[in-house]
Amino acid sequence: MPVNGADYSEKIPNNVDLREDRRLQRALESWQPDFLNWWESMGPSLPTQDVYLRTAVDVGREGWAHFGHVAMKDYRWGIFLAERDRDRRIGFGAHKGEPAWQKVPGEYRADLQRLIVIQGDTEPASVEQQRNLGATAPSLYDLRNLFQVNVEEGRHLWAMVYLLHAYFGREGREEAEELLHRNSGSDESPRILGAFNEETPDWLSFFMFTYFTDRDGKYQLGTLKESGFDPLSRTCEFMLKEEAHHMFVGTTGIDRVVERTARLMIDHDTDDVAALGAIPLDVVQKYLNFHYSVSLDLFGSETSSNVANYYTAGLKGRWREDRRKDDHRLTDDSFLVDALVDGEIGTTEVAALVGLNTDLRREYIGDCQSGVNRWNKILEDAGLAPRFRLPSVAFNRKVGAFAGIEATPDGTVLSPQEWERRRDAWLPTDADKAYVCSLMRPVHERGKIAGWIAPPRRGINGQPFDYEYVHLA
After folding, report:
1. What does pTM read for this prediction?
2. Which of 105, 242, 441, 463 has its CA 20 to 30 A from that of 67?
3. Residue 69: phi, psi to the nearest 5?
């Protein structure tokens, strides 16, 4: 087997020499049927013959993926860790400079397991949320992208399950089982994080989810990539490579929604594009407001002693830790976090360690702004005046310092009564959702596309837009 390559001769493709640990191999092979049953019952509901999918075959910088038509039920989910750096040392916290751990330190076992379980729980959740979207795909190109996201989220579940089985014994195996027993939106056993229990009933929601919520995933994986526990670090490093496509789907999907709406506004000299079967810009903004604010909650409270402890222990670092110009211990540093100050939205100074959630959230916000700039450039180039904006960090928050207040998108604090009176101007209404859903009519013909979205500028892996990306059953 190549140093970095995946061994596809095994029942579970892997690059971790699974055959060398027969007990672990048997445990994972016993979990595999449960995973496949979950995929059949909770995965994509649209019947297909095969899909033009990317499959990981290596973890190197070049040539790591193979493209080809695959029956989704036969997709080879596997376990892939980035190449090990044998000289790697922990880059932060109390253990800074020590060799990275190849085994779980006993004193950090519970915390590491919890971090892995929470990350693992998000992966199947998004598949469940997107289960029925195939039935309303605007093109075969988009349908293929949906299925690519789905199979890779399934593989990311495998990545976390491997760590639980390999390093956490019986408790890890039990947690791996629970990852398949919780379901998005379930009353009895919901997913752990709120955003992963929200509905994704239409493709505008899907594009917003893959832009905003998968971008949160990027930043969470980025902090875990810094972990002193080397197998977790290597796992997340490779997951980030796959995650990039998910955010590409969201970024370019919203690009194309805005392009189509802008084109119809110009061609018909009207803002009333609903009459023309497109999505009005103000509705796009409302969806943006919702998905962005829900995703902000995923970063947790503005201050957190748990995250401070994770950092000091070397379990979870900062985004791009190696680029930070400080001592990477932060014991004597302070940081300004967002806070409610005398009833107004402001900031307060706290110990840097307890402000790490805010630090990460701000990195995320800056990244989100890049997409807004893209979409505004489309409007600017079209000669249109409207502009998209990220709402205030206090808008529509259910977690953290602003959970107990209501604020407008520009950050003005409102009474609960005023919020109820005005919220429909900022968040999708039932009528907005019904209208967007009314546009979701499937276009499954080769080279055709729905009227509410522009075609992509290029296809996948050098293929044209009218390529047969999906063969339906």
Report:
1. 0.96
2. 441
3. -75, 125
